[in-house]
Amino acid sequence: MAANALAIQQFAELDEAEIEARIHAAKVQLGERVLILGHHYQREEVFRHADISGDSLKLSRMAAQSNAEYIVFCGVHFMAEVADILSRPEQVAILPDLAAGCSMADMANLAKVERAWRELNEVLGDADQVITPVTYINSAADLKAFCGRHGGIVCTSSNAQQVLNWSFAQREKILFFPDQHLGRNTGHAMGIPLEEMVTWDFNQPMGGLSVEQIKQARMILWKGFCSVHQMFKPQHIDAFRAQYPDGKVISHPECSFAVCQKSDYVGSTEFIIKTVAASAPGTRWLVGTELNLVNRLHEHNKHEGKHAHFMSPTICMCSTMFRIDPQHLLWVLENLLEGKVVNQIKVPEDEARQARITLERMLEVSP
Ligand code: 13P
Ligand code: SF4
Hints:
This protein has helices spanning about 5-10, 15-30, 45, 55-65, 75-85, 110-125, 125-130, 140-150, 160-170, 180-190, 210-215, 235-245, 255-260, 270-280, 290-300, 325-335, 350-365; strands spanning about 35-40, 50-55, 70-75, 90-95, 130-135, 155, 175, 195-200, 220, 250, 265, 285-290, 305-310. It has 17 helices and 13 strands. It is of the alpha/beta class. The chain is about 45% helix and about 15% strand. It binds 1,3-dihydroxyacetonephosphate and iron/sulfur cluster.
């Protein structure tokens, strides 16, 4: 068994109350030297220890502004990479469990994106003159660096419209990866007809598209998706509306086009939380995003008679976010107390420099 796994096993025997107390004590001792960032999808036992919680955009900003020596990211791998890229060189970004990845981010990799770029070059001439590559923040640092080398940019679910506006101001077409749904939902909200958005099947030569389809497309959407958000279906919304005709539906833009079209509101995790909090007492919500967030939303708003229902009848959590447990958080913090850094996320400097260009561009155009 690897040394880290052995070390964490010792924590598995501790009871919850002891873990909780020791995390608290370690945080007090570390003081301002450590900043714990928590994404909204984290389980409650971890989430309650976050100094700041938020969506990907807010947490990126917080990482960039932080003065802490250590940024412990309770989220997934790409988020800790962004924290490393945007923080100062002497700051250390830590991901409590290195296996906390993002299955959607893994649907695009540099080899496949470079192949797509070469194939698009063949059809369109110099792709760098015609296409702005846009990567969703849910992607590896080398894809952000790719966008940096090709005049592109990063987006999150909070700023996708502003980023697409910026991108179309640079060049006539966009290659958007890895999430087809965020690309399609945002493009449609900006008035781009569905026929002008084509889906690039990364397992097929030329994305499975004809020369004509590529030439007439304004947006080329990578065929990636989130395994959690794909569980939500239009029929779940129909069933809710039949039972609660006055109810409201709110979804994350990683949901399918059909689900977003049937929703009253579409937006990032932070937007979902703020919208439900600002709604009238007694409002009943159907929420199309991850279960931990929806459960917390319900708890925080039930005193006003509001209800937040999870959109799918089957339980679907983000299993990779779930890997960050109190045991790993405690292990990280107690190592820091002993002067040891475990599970540091360090993006190679050259890659980080190119990726930083695209993240800074994104922060400039963000609302
Ligand atoms: P947000 O930026 O809206 O928090 O989304 C991140 C994410 O991974 C959603 O699945
Ligand atoms: Fe990735 Fe989906 Fe999990 Fe978000 S919910 S981190 S997109 S797998």
